[in-house]
Every structure is written in C-alpha cells, then in structure tokens.
# Entry
Amino acid sequence: MQYFIDSANKQEIQEVLQYGIKGITANTTMYRKEHIGVQDFVREWSQKKPAFLSGEVIGTYEEMLEQAEQLLKIYPQTVIKINFSKDGLRLASYLHEKGVQTAMTLLFTVTQGIAAIQAGCDYLFFFIGRNEEQGWDGMEAIAALQEIIDHRKYHAKVVAASIKNLYQLEKLARCPIAYAAVPYALYMRSLQHPLTESGAFTFQKDYQENEMNHK
# Structure
C-alpha cells in the first residue's frame, strides 16, 4: 500500500515528500482552510512531478468539465477528482473516453464503487471513518470492493480515505489495498513507537560511550 498525503498545507506536503511519499491529494475544504485555489494548488505541486496529483472539481456537469479543462491546461497529468453523483459519473465517463485520469471520491458503498468503475474511473476514494461513524463497517466494505476488483480484473485502484486512527491504518496495510490518503497528523503518529524511541536512545548512548573508549 502506498500513501498519498491528504493535505493542502504547504509545510506538511513539503515535509512528507522528503520521506518518500509520492502522491498528493486534497479536497475543497482543505483548499479553503489553507486559502489556496485548486488551480494554484495544482500549479504549485505539479512542479514536483509527483506520481499522483489530484485537483477536485465541483458543480454541475458543465461547470466541472470547464474546471477540469482548466486544470489539465495547467498540468496535463492532473487526476481529476470528482464527487460521486450522476453528473460526476457522466463527467468521469466522458473524461475516460478522452484519456484523462479521474478519481471518484465520497464513495461509501460497494455499489457506488462499481458504478464508478463502469464510468471508467482510475481511482476510487472509499471512505472508512465516516462510514463507521454511521454504523457501517467501512473496513469490510472496502475489502469487499477490492476483492471484486481483483476477481473481475478491473483496472481501477482503491484509495482508502477518511482514515481516522492508527487501528484503521494498520488494518488497511494488511489488506491488498493499493493506496491510502493519509492525513499529516495520522502519518506522523504512525512513525512513532515508544520502543523505537527508547531503543534509539540506548543505541545513541552506547555509540557515544564506545566511540569515546576507542579514540
């Protein structure tokens, strides 16, 4: 499983790119929080040539198509991120025919995922945490969707999204899920463990003492 950084914050993205993360994604709420427009977001991060960079479009079919065309003029490799809806499926199908990569987001059920696959979507952002907040088993649903994709040999890649805690992230890592959109704070927590920290302290102490004795 590969991580996408799920953030529009410049400092957060710059930091994690140094750690080997190759994908960048965000949503309109994140753009607003960081006071950056989607076109500026794509323009800035396309300079890093990431393996994955999404730009989200919003509105009616016609409005989303116009926004997508503008983003593709800025960076032809932009993955157009679309909220799940009938207009969204229509747009994904059209862009697929044009050879444009798309990502469908706000997916909560297997049937929504199948509809996105049939529309030609390349990436399926399936929400875990928000699903479980409503009493549904988000982990079971995303695993079922991945199983269908594997069995039918569909080309779409599942992206686990709305990941709320380390338990969910750990379980996802054990599944054959291709990608996970991980918030900065959760990613940083996943790097920490008290035994790693105590072991590093011991090794550093022993190294310093050993080097002193051999000077």
User: Anything to note?
Assistant: The radius of gyration is 20 Å.
